């Protein structure tokens, strides 16, 4: 299941498209303006964005440039504009694919699956899972297993664990976590990190007093490492 963000202002298009994509197994959120879409893309970290160009507050091409400045999330442009020069410009600006209205949900679904198969580098192949001891974090499927047993995480918990698993044995500061995972500046929000770490520990079957994977370094941050690495 992919988490999609649909940025489309036309309700007569947005509503049936959300329904059809959900029927095909995707989790779909939607925004009707460019700025709302930018905010949702940064806060919710979807797997892919479907972007209309004719938005009421900002042209979709400008939103694409803004999004590309802060995120590598795959973007499929879905619009009625069919000028070849514009299509080339949008692809050069960072769009991963372009579909012209009218199109069916089945066509869009096929394009979504094709773009996601390419991975973040744009090349076909699988994004490798991160393995730390008995912990396995699969960024493609956004799934986590611990000693072979699935661990159900919220999207934010997954992003937090994925960031830490990519730096095993390193102390990661709260400042870095707020910047990279939450994409917000440091200052007054470090309790957010503490709360999510507490929830994550609980789901991994540990706590701060008896850590297995998540080790607090007081006054600095947190370190993720395999239990076997401990003396």
Automatic annotation (TrEMBL):
InterPro entries: CheY-like_superfamily, OmpR/PhoB-type_DNA-bd, Sig_transdc_resp-reg_receiver, WalR-like, WH-like_DNA-bd_sf. Keywords: DNA-binding, Phosphoprotein, Transcription, Transcription regulation, Two-component regulatory system. GO terms for biological process: regulation of DNA-templated transcription. It comes from the Bacteria. GO terms for molecular function: phosphorelay response regulator activity; transcription cis-regulatory region binding. PANTHER family: DNA-BINDING DUAL TRANSCRIPTIONAL REGULATOR OMPR (PTHR48111:SF4), REGULATOR OF RPOS (PTHR48111). Residues 127-226 bind DNA. Residues 127-226 form the OmpR/PhoB-type domain. PROSITE patterns: OMPR_PHOB (PS51755), RESPONSE_REGULATORY (PS50110). The modification 4-aspartylphosphate is found at residue 52. This is DNA-binding response regulator. One of its GO terms (cellular component) is cytosol. The keyword Transcription applies. Residues 3-116 form the Response regulatory domain. It holds the Pfam family Response_reg.
């Amino acid at each position: 299941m992919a988490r999609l963000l649909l940025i489309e202002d036309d309700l007569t298009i947005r509503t049936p498209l959300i329904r059809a994509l959900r029927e095909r197994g995707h989790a779909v959120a939607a925004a009707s303006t460019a700025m709302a879409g930018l905010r949702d893309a940064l806060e919710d970290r979807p797997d892919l964005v479907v972007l209309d160009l004719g938005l009421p507050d900002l042209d979709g091409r400008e939103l694409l440039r803004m999004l590309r400045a802060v995120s590598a999330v795959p973007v499929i442009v879905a619009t009625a504009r069919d000028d070849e020069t514009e299509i080339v410009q949008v692809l050069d600006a960072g769009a991963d694919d372009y579909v012209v209205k009218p199109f069916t949900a089945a066509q869009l679904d096929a394009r979504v699956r094709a773009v996601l198969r390419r991975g973040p580098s744009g090349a076909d192949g699988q994004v490798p899972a991160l393995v730390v001891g008995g912990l396995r974090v699969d960024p493609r499927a956004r799934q986590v297993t611990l000693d072979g047993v699935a661990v159900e995480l919220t999207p934010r918990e997954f992003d937090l664990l994925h960031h830490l698993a990519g730096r095993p044995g390193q102390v990661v500061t709260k400042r870095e976590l707020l910047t990279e995972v939450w994409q917000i500046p440091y200052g007054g929000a470090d309790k957010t990190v503490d709360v999510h770490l507490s929830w994550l520990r609980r789901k991994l079957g540990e706590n701060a007093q008896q850590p297995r994977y998540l080790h607090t370094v007081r006054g600095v941050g947190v370190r993720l490492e395999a239990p076997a690495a401990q003396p």
